[in-house]
Amino acid sequence: VASLAVPLEESEFYTDRFTSEAWFEDGSRVWVSFLVSNLGPGTHKLTVKSRWYEAGGKEHYFKKELERSGYTVSNEPFKFAGAGHTLSGTPRSFSVKGAGADGYSFDLDFKSGLAPWRPGTGRTTFGTEALSYLDMTIVQPKAVVTGSVSGPGGKKTLKGYGYVLHTVATVPPYELAKRLVEARSIDTDTVVWVKQFTTPEKYGGKTFGYLYIARGGEVLVSSGKFALKFDKLVTDSKHANKYKVPWVVSANGKRKEKSITLEIKASAQSGREDELESRGALEATLIRQYAQPVNYTLDADATVAVTEPGKEPVVTTAKAVYQVNHLNK
Question: Exposed end of the chain (fewer CB within 10 Å): N or C?
């Protein structure tokens, strides 16, 4: 299956990541990441991470790093297994299993009524010879998630919703973008995914990304060519680069007779991570030569308005996960 295939390329900067996350009716949550990377010594190293959050918010975090001999992967049928965790299935019916931290294990099925989506060809190339690329697939824009979790308190049946993403890249992280803006809202019947990044000047300072909006199982907007408008720019006075963070982001789309508008409006900044501050002195000095990354997380609402001739606009507002990442000035 093309959207799930793990190519295991030899490129020095090759990375391949699966991310799945789910929220359950009892208030618990799970997040699982499989990351294959050639960065640093060795090739095709796998890092498996999982986070199980109890309904009360307590986190159980698992992480293990494996050499190539320590995990298995097949593309047809798709199955990716290592460190007691397994991803398998098809884009529409995806299985996530894991024996995580503190005696917790989970067995979950992600099923999506929305088809997998790739913006354009799904691949953005870098450089005149297009040897480096970023490949993006929203495998499940919104999934119904069912299954069970077992732990010290016994076994519990679960039901909720979630998503599955797959991203492959051969471009160094510090050369991918000067700025990255992304947001997600899948809590309601209206599903929103938006991502936009601007490349460094060596790649022309071009803007790429995607806008995906669905409601009631119908895709309203799915485009790799769109314009984001940024408003209410707030300057990070703590950083030497004085990065600007947009607190309001908007976009417009059209499908047949329907006009669609999206506005993401932040109400508070809930997180700021200067990555160099969390690194050792030597590592920070090396990274600073290429990038000065700061990640901002904001509490936000996503409002989608759909207008058709002769009808009242249908407007919905839901909570959104909104992040702005600055890598370079």
Answer: C
Sign (positive or negative) of CA dihedral 265, 314, 214, 259: negative
Residues 161-218: tens digit of each pLDDT: 999 999 999 998 778 889 999 999 999 999 999 999 988 888 888 899 999 999 999 9
What are the tens digits of pLDDT across the range 288-316?
888 899 999 999 999 999 999 999 999 99
> Which tokens in the block code for residue 212?
């995906």
Question: How many alpha carbons lie under 13 Å from residue 120 in its C-beta half-sphere?
Answer: 12
What type of residue sits at position 41?
P
How far out from the chain centre does Cα 30 lie? 14
Max CA distance (Å), the chain? 64
> DSSP string covering 48-112, please?
EEEEEE-TT--EEEEEEEE-GGGEEEEETTEEEEETTEEEEE-SSEEEEEEE-GGG-EEEEEEE-
For 45-71, how does the pLDDT look when each residue is reduced to its tens digit (9 = 90+)? 999 999 999 999 999 999 999 999 999
15 closest CA partner among 44, 42, 41: 44
H or E stretch covering 287: helix 281-288
The CB density around residue 273, as the number of other CB atoms within 10 Å, is 13
Whether pLDDT at 129 is above 80: no
For residues 329 and 179, give the distance between their C-alpha atoms in angstroms, rounded to a whole number.
8
Three-state secondary-structure class, residue 127: coil
Task: List C-alpha distances in Å: 106 to 46, 100, 165, 261.
Answer: 20, 8, 19, 38
Check: CB of residue 249 under 8 Å from CB of residue 228.
yes
Q: Which amino acid is at 13?
A: F
- At a CB cut-off of 8 Å and minimum separation 6, what does 169 contact? 13, 14, 15, 16, 132, 133, 134, 135, 176
**The length of the chain, given as a count of residues:** 329
Q: Partners of 259 in the beta sheet?
A: 254, 307
Q: What distance in Å separates the CA atoms of residue 327 and residue 329, rounded to the nearest whole number?
A: 7
- The string of DSSP letters for 176-200 reads H-SEEEEEEE-SSSEEEEEEEEE--
